[in-house]
UniProtKB/TrEMBL annotation:
Name under which the protein is recorded: Nitrogenase
Organism of this sequence: Thiovibrio frasassiensis
Assigned keywords, A-Z: Nitrogen fixation
Family classification: Belongs to the NifD/NifK/NifE/NifN family.
InterPro entries per record: ChlB/BchB/BchZ, Nase/OxRdtase_comp1, Nase_comp1_CS
Residue ranges annotated for the Nitrogenase/oxidoreductase component domain, each copy included: 18-437
Pfam families in UniProt: Oxidored_nitro (PF00148)
Coiled-coil ranges (or none): none
Superkingdom per UniProt: Bacteria
Amino acid sequence: MTKMPPQYVSTTNACKLCKPLGASLAFRGVEGAVPFLHGSQGCATYMRRYIISHFNEPIDIASSSLGEKNAVYGGGANLKLGLKNVTEKYHPALIGIATTCLTETIGDDVKRLLFEYRQEFMQDGGPLLVQVSTPSYSGTHMEGFHAAVRALVEQLTKESAPNGTVNILPGFLSAADLRSLKEIACDCGLIATVLPDFSETLDGPALRDYPLIPEGGTKIKDIQAMSGAKATVEFGYTLPDQLSGGVHLEKTYKVPLHRLGMPVGIRETDRFFEVLSELSGKPVPEKYSMARGRLVDSLVDGHKYVFGKRAVVYGEEDLVIGLTSFLAEIGVQPVLCASGGTSGSFVKAIENAVTGFPVEMPRVHEGMDFHEIGELAAELKPDFFLGHSKGYPLARDLNIPLIRMGFPIHDRVGGQRLLHIGYHGAQQLFDLIANAMIMAKQDGSDVGYSYM
Ligand code: SF4
């Protein structure tokens, strides 16, 4: 008898988040901006909950608050009323409007609605309105993030005279990464426009009063002048051209584009510094060559703890590629690289990431969910998991450490302060991994070791 194929394919805990969530994060990285969801309250509440639990900071995400009636008759009236309320309450410089599954399904023409809104309510001025289409059923939070960055560049940047700056489009990094990126550019003698920059808006100091819009973020006038930059540096090997702000700046304003991987690990960080050196015309500052030297020394000291270990890495495609490259550098065998993203470039990028290092090509899967990751992990017998908090139940089942990286991290504090990039970031990653391996050995030993 022929075996019946499965009657359906289900997803169990997808290894990705919602598309407008990514857009909201990107909009939060612009000075004076309020993210606005054209959708139901529930969507905004879910996103706020996710973002707050990772960053431990409040985030206001406004919503057009659609109900059942709007699903039938359209959400135009609510969108306009919502924009009016947000303008009056927050006095924002910019409102970043992202659509949701509901408004994309009912087919609201947001562009036309915003045209009408401008005619009706903005004759005497008002905030800039930037709009992005982010139906979550067709992509990941990273695609929403990139789409929002692209929309900001497309809708705000104007023709500008050469200004000697450098655009950096870093993708979704931690707040600590963004601070480090700005410091690196400054130390290299470059004036950089980093877009987006939520290093302060989502990781600011304690304040006596809650500001409706927190200080910080990429200045709007700097985004408008990105066309005058001498180059754009954009991170992301899996970023498609249609979602790339760098490609738009190159095609529209002829700003040369340097597409790099996330500078995670020595090889990718070296590439990043080479480009910065080329753009500044200066050698790498001593502070960074010293950090690189210390990092190499620590790898020599600690290789015995990590060499030959096996890891499952999952999360956003470009972060997984960076982490895989770093693992290969330190002699860890990545056995599974998984992502919920479906860029089509993931496998090739992982192949490039491990080329030149003494490790085998790992299993690589796009569009994976945590059920499948769990099944494969049980078979592949890793020594540790590397990824965000959603892999915790799987690591716990296998009784192996989960080393938390990426987003979301909501069962530890400090996710926003994790440094992934540059030589300093690689140093922190190495120490984390080596110490996790030492701890696992101590915990699994009957004798216990005080010296390892
Ligand atoms: S309904 Fe769609 S847009 Fe709303 S939270 Fe869910 S996945 Fe995101």
